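We emphasize that the prediction below concerns an isolated chain of 224 residues; any contacts that depend on oligomerization or on bound cofactors are therefore not represented. The input was used exactly as deposited, without trimming of termini.
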Amino acid sequence: MEIDAETGAGAGSGTGVGGGVTASSAVGGTVGGSGGGSACGAAGSAAGSAAGGAIGGAASPATRRAVGAAGEADGVALAEVPWAHPDAVALRARQRAEIAVLYGTPDSEPGPAPSAADSAVCLVAYGPGGAPVGCGGLRALGAGTGEVKRMYVVPDRRGTGVAGRLLGGLEEWAHRQGWGALRLETGDRQPAAVRFYTRCGYVRIPNFGPYAGGNASWCFERRL
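Result of the prediction step, given as a token string:
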């Protein structure tokens, strides 16, 4: 399951998903707002156009260069990083720990965990000083459809628009690939997450793939 940064509630699969690349790989680039027109991502469009200086702090030198090139808007910038980039790995670990507490088990995920092999893109949100404050990724489902995975924002940045910025960045990336829709799964214990995704234009659909038949799973889709 993913953690919704706007509300502090879980959003996504019943437990969360992970993967890998290499921590030493170069950052893939920068991402701005939502090319797909998400209501939640629209405010993030300035991130790709605002001019800014280099970001320091916890990010690697390659990440600082990538984020600095795009600049910051509202103190947050997005960077496309390898799945196993240390900032992404650390954020996903924090997400998994929160989900384990929420569900009372370290393994509540109803579907297969994502990996480097099936991860299409991974974004990390950086705050002032280069501190990583959130992450999110996409898994390709085929036929021009992707699945939102591993959405997470650190607790002290929830409710500040970071989740909307991340979701908008993922939608923009998917739009550039020519994808027509994004799907996601969230647990029935996350009403705040349901409100967040609904506000962002996602509508409930019959459970798909590994979530079919799971009463605790709620699936959503947004046409891009």
